[in-house]
Specification:
Elements lengths: L1 H33 L35 H13 L1 H21 L5 E16 L2 H4 L7 E18 L5 H67 L6 H34 L39 H21 L5 E12 L11 E10 L5 H69 L5 H36 L7
Antiparallel strand pairs: 1-2, 2-3, 3-4
Helix pairs in contact: 2-5, 3-5, 5-6, 5-7, 5-9, 7-8, 8-9
């Protein structure tokens, strides 16, 4: 007897400890369902790796206007208005907003009205109620009508904040969609500006190559005369022919790339290439343009935290944090209040009376016992997705610094190269003028004059392409900094 009593006491103690343990887990988990997710803090460098010499001009946040080119402004405006990828991104925001209202509807009870008329046949004993009297006591078929109408309501108590967490997750996803649309917008504006400047540079390059081709063709003609007269051997003639073929190939490639880029630009602004007509007259792309005035001065590193792709990654972390809370709530019982009120009667003439009224009320508690393994899998997956989102957020921040540092490094090096190309062009231009005078006075030959003309044209060709490269570097800096979303 004593042993059995001791066993009973031990079992009670173990049961009490189990209840205390489960209760503590229950309370702690329940508290976490109502708390806000912790903000992920990432330590970032205080300044960028490269510092640049910038000008004193005020840099506009809608950076394409810094180039003072009305044609570019028009193209950017049309692209933002008509580009289909950007319009799709805007629609994604609207789609995400519908999930917010859908989840908010779960805070309200579900009310249904129903009406039914049923005709029943039942085997039974003959009675005065259904057959109008009789005493035979034999079996007969009972036929009667039953009309029912009523309201039913069901309301799931948000005891574990699951619905509120779902609403907050949906709102976080709306923010994700907005930042994604901004990413599309920034990329679109950068692509339009780059395509515009590239077309301008290709047109200038094509004009330059045509001049080089004409000069080289004249040089070949003069060499052919000297060769026939026996003054030179065949080597200069063959070299001139080779140069002509090279120039012809470069000119063909320049025209081809120009057509392709125009088609791409038409796509950016949402038009068919067949209907895209635009005159590319750019007056700002001077050979000696000071691009340092276009670089924002004193760039703080914190600006990268406002990049749309970084903010999108941050909102994704928030979204998955709420999703994890939702999955945690699956381990707790669901509390559901239900109620019904209506009328039931075999006839309609006295349907709505107190004697025919029916009602019911109940509280349903559904405990997640048999689907425990499913809930564990859902929670584990949400936890892994949250960890993945945190890693993606860190990766987005590091990538933002990498892109910005690379853009600044490219600009710094290309600006130095641009200065060398400008000096080379100026030197070759002076020599071309000198030998032009000497040719007119009979001191220099026509071939010598044309050779220095070729040198000058080649220096100009290099300057045109280096100018384009520097423009693309400036655009990359703006894009890396996330500028262009807020107009000045």
């Amino acid at each position: 007897m004593k042993i059995s009593r001791i066993k009973i006491k031990i079992n009670k103690i173990l049961f009490l400890l189990f209840c205390m343990g489960f209760g503590s887990v229950f309370i702690l988990s329940g508290c976490s369902l109502f708390s806000s997710p912790k903000k992920i803090v990432i330590k970032i460098p205080k300044q960028f790796k490269y510092t640049l010499k910038t000008g004193n001009m005020a840099v506009k946040n809608d950076w394409w206007k810094n180039f003072n080119d009305k044609n570019l402004d028009i193209l950017v405006g049309e692209a933002v208005k008509n580009n289909l990828n950007y319009l799709i991104a805007i629609k994604n925001i609207q789609v995400a907003e519908t999930y917010v209202s859908q989840n908010e509807s779960n805070l309200f009870p579900v009310v249904n009205f129903n009406f039914s008329a049923v005709r029943n046949k039942l085997p039974g004993y003959e009675t005065s109620i259904f057959s109008g009297g009789g005493s035979s006591g034999g079996h007969s078929t009972v036929i009667y009508n039953l009309n029912q109408a009523g309201l039913s309501a069901s309301y799931e108590l948000d005891a574990w904040n699951q619905v509120n967490n779902a609403i907050k997750q949906a709102k976080a996803n709306v923010a994700v969609s907005k930042e994604d649309a901004d990413v599309v917008k920034l990329t679109l504006i950068s692509n339009v500006a780059q395509a515009y400047f590239q077309i301008w540079a290709l047109e200038k390059s094509a004009d330059n190559l045509k001049k080089q081709y004409a000069a080289e063709k004249e040089i070949l003609k003069l060499y052919m005369i000297q060769y026939k007269d026996g003054l030179i051997d065949a080597e200069p003639v063959e070299a001139a022919k080779t140069n002509l073929e090279i120039l012809k190939t470069e000119l063909n490639d320049s025209i081809k790339l120009q057509d392709i880029t125009k088609n791409t630009l038409a796509y950016y602004i949402g038009k068919f290439p067949e209907k895209f007509k635009f005159k590319f007259k750019n007056n700002t792309n001077k050979k000696s343009m000071d691009y340092s005035n276009l670089i924002p001065p004193n760039i703080p590193s914190e600006i990268l935290t406002q990049r749309p792709d970084v903010k999108e990654a941050e909102y994704n972390v928030l979204s998955y944090a709420y999703a994890k809370k939702e999955s945690l709530a699956n381990f707790f019982p669901v509390l559901n209040l239900t109620g019904n009120y209506g009328y039931a009667s075999p006839s309609l003439n006295n349907f709505v009376t107190d004697t025919n009224s029916i009602w019911s009320f109940g509280l349903n508690i559904l405990a997640p016992i048999f689907n425990y393994k499913t809930n564990i899998s859902i929670y584990k997956r949400s936890k892994l997705q949250y960890q993945q989102a945190v890693l993606n957020y860190r990766n987005a921040v590091i990538n933002a610094f990498s892109e910005t540092d690379s853009a600044l490094a490219d600009y710094r090096r290309d600006a130095k190269t641009m200065k060398s190309y400008e000096n080379n062009f100026n030197y070759s231009l002076k020599l071309f003028h000198i030998y032009g005078v000497q040719y007119k006075t009979g001191i220099a030959s026509r071939i010598t004059y044309l050779t220095y003309k070729m040198n000058m044209l080649n220096a100009e060709y290099n300057l045109i392409n280096q100018n384009l490269l520097l423009q693309e570097d400036v655009i990359s800096v703006y894009n890396a900094l996330g500028m262009g979303l807020k107009a000045d």
